[in-house]
Amino acid sequence: MASSSSLSSTGGPRWGSREGGRSSPIPYRQGPLNYWPPVLCKCGNKAGRLTAWSDENPGRRFVKCFSATPAMGGCDFWHWVDPPPSPFPRELLIDLRDAVRALRMENRELQGRVGDAARQQIWPVYAAEEQRALAEPIGAETVAVVTKKAEENAKLRCRIYSLEKE
C-alpha cells in the first residue's frame, strides 16, 4: 500500500503541499473528484482520484476515500487505478520528478537572492536621501558661516592694507 505522505493533490494541505519535497511535481489537470465513472469507497462517498509520486509508484493513479481518516468520518478505502509502472518508465519518471523538484528549489533560492539584492540596492538609496535631507540644513548653515567669515576676512585685509600704508 502507498502511504499518504507520498501523495498530493490540489485538495489542499491535507494531501500535501507544493512547498514540501513530497508534493506533486506537476499540477493536477483535474480535481480529485472530477472523473467518471465514480468509484465509491466503503463509507459510500465518491473516492478521490490522486497520483502517487513515491519511488515505487511514480505517476501511478489511485482512488482513496476523500475523507481519509475515521476522525473525519471517512474510511481506509484505496485502490490502484493504473497497473504498476515497468522499470524504464519508472526510472524516467523518478528522474523527471527529481529534476522538477530541484529546479523549483533552485528557483525559490534565486527568487530569495533577487529579493535580498533588491532590498540591498534600495536601502542605500533611502539612506542617501535621508543623509541629504539631514545635510541640507547643515549645508545652508555652513554657507552662511563661510559667507560671514569671507566678509570679515575682506574687512580685515582692508584694515591690514590701510595700516601698512600709514
Automatic annotation (TrEMBL):
Organism phylogeny: Eukaryota, Viridiplantae, Streptophyta, Embryophyta, Tracheophyta
Annotated spans, Disordered: 1-29
Domain of life: Eukaryota
Oxidoreductase listed as a keyword: no
Annotated GO MF terms: zinc ion binding
Sequence ranges assigned to domain GRF-type in this UniProt record: 41-84
UniProt KW keywords: Coiled coil, Metal-binding, Zinc, Zinc-finger
Native source organism of the sequence: Panicum virgatum
UniProt cross-references to PROSITE patterns, sorted A to Z: ZF_GRF
Coiled coil start-end: 93-120
Protein name: GRF-type domain-containing protein
Pfam name, any one: Zn_ribbon_GRF
Keyword Zinc: yes
Record InterPro entries: Znf_GRF
